[in-house]
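Hi support team,

I'm filing this because I wasn't sure whether my run with zinc ion finished correctly. The job status page said complete, but I'd like someone to confirm that the output block is well-formed before I use it downstream. Pasting the exact inputs I used:
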Amino acid sequence: MISPEGGPVDEAEESATTGSAATQVLRRIFGYDTFREGQGEIIEHVVDGGDALVLMPTGGGKSLCYQIPSLVRPGVGVVISPLIALMQDQVDALTALGVRAGFLNSTQGIDERQAVEACFVAGEIDLLYLAPERLRVESTLRLLDRGKISLFAIDEAHCVAQWGHDFRPDYLALSTLHERWPEVPRVALTATATPATHAEIASRLNLENARHFVASFDRPNIQYRIVPKNEPKRQLLDLLRNEHRGDAGIVYCLSRSSVEKIADFLTQNDIPALPYHAGLDAGTRAANQSRFLREDGLVMVATIAFGMGIDKPDVRFVAHLDLPKSVEGYYQETGRAGRDGLPSTAWLAYGLQDVVQQRRLIETSEGDDTHRRRLGTHLDAMLALCETIDCRRVRLLDYFGQRARPCGNCDTCLTPPESWDGTIPAQKLLSTVFRLHRERRQKFGAGQVVDILLGRKTDKVLQHDHASLTVFGIGTDLREAEWRGIVRQLLAQGLLTVEGDYGTLVLTDASADVLRGQRQVLFRREPERKPKPSAKSTAKSAATSTTPRTAPTAADLSPAALATFERLRTWRATTAKEQGVPAYVIFHDSTLREIATRTPTSLTELSQINGIGENKLTKYGQPVLDVLHS
Ligand code: ADP
Ligand code: ZN
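And here is everything the job wrote out:
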């Protein structure tokens, strides 16, 4: 349960506070039975005119927290969002619910803009979406003065955090909203929530006196898995073919060129994939994003330029082929999976090269030492997550200052890795680095160091006369892959570091303790067996461990229901195409699954299903019954 300061709230108390106009809107317009964790309280507080800072994970249900108060309070809710490319879809989704909404941004022609402005002034819309830069323009401020504003919603509020990964200078100006409109409540929302970011948002937006709502950051339906990177392309292909055939998903890569390569590779292997990165022209980016949102089963291969605000509910997996720079970024990216609450996978492949590359990027990054240290701290936390032998979810939530019990739905819970005492191999490796430097005044990358340990007489080894070193060949008890794993883990533990353009290995202050035998080194042994494939089979146990989401999962569908579900999906795809909206704007998968399971025979029965409000019942009710009973 959510509470202003994270403590538990009584169940009865929550339902008592939400029995109002807000609940009616929830049922009638949105077609949902109950509020999700926290929504009821936040909505009540904002409806009453209070300011709020809402920290909720991606997919937690933030939109309702300002949409419902906008509908209940007199006036128009003004939503500040940095995501111009998604405003049309957001407005379309509201229109499909029968909610009157509009947006103002640079993509519009003058006629369209004037029409929206007139609706705003006349109070003929309930929600108005605005890009933050609009508020720098005096004419926008004057326009807002002419209408009645019910609330300001500041979406993606972490964009105000200057050290964050999504900083937008225009957000800084939002702190002045309450000076001009002191009586209008403000609700700021974000899914990025380390204690430091939380504090920065509050202070920059002048929300110290607002009520702060911190939801649980757990996303129980997402199965977290981090695997050693061996042959990344083949590993990715296995994941997609064996567990996510036909599913929509996102594959994140670090560079533009790897995005292009992986998208081509998937396409060649009959997996429909599109690229997305900042190097593509705006038209191609918009077209690819639009196809991803509208079509079923597409894979988006992208840099982190892609994803903020993408509220496609049925993203079934998020795969990372390169190491993310921070846990915060990683959690936000993986959170794009499974917004609909159905089982989903977050999968990351990571190897030695990632560590070397990231350390080098930090070393050569612009900015002062403090900045570099901060980047280093972020990376260390990410590495600790990768190398942990404990539950990944416990680690992730701990990063956000929240406690959890082992989840039963991550790789380390499903197939616990062991730790082993690697002090001796660590000493061998560190002393090789030490001797190269001490006796030869040379520094080398991991490849050569491992060659020396394995006693390989490669051209380079012979050229530098490494075979005469006392450490030459002292590591033949382990295989090359194991040595690379050791280098990776030493780097992750800060017992070794890299330097320069070639990623040469150097000792750290802490290495000396290991060499002197004063410090034990524990390594993670990769489990032999792969974790049980598919979140699908484990969804039930995950759902019982925390708040269950109501939708039945694929595993629950009988063959007959599955066939009906597929027929409904085909109907949905055709209808979406005709209306030019994303399929999920019509109905979510979770709603279609529930229809397929319950097979309602009348409009009244249909109206009981989650996700079917009045407007959708009127519009799509009969066609759905026709599909069911034809
Ligand atoms: P966020 O903005 O926090 O990432 P959204 O507002 O997009 O999350 O909500 C995530 C999904 O959950 C959406 O598909 C939304 O329709 C659904 N949802 C939100 N609140 C409820 C609720 N009370 N009952 C059922 N589904 C909900
Ligand atoms: Zn776990």
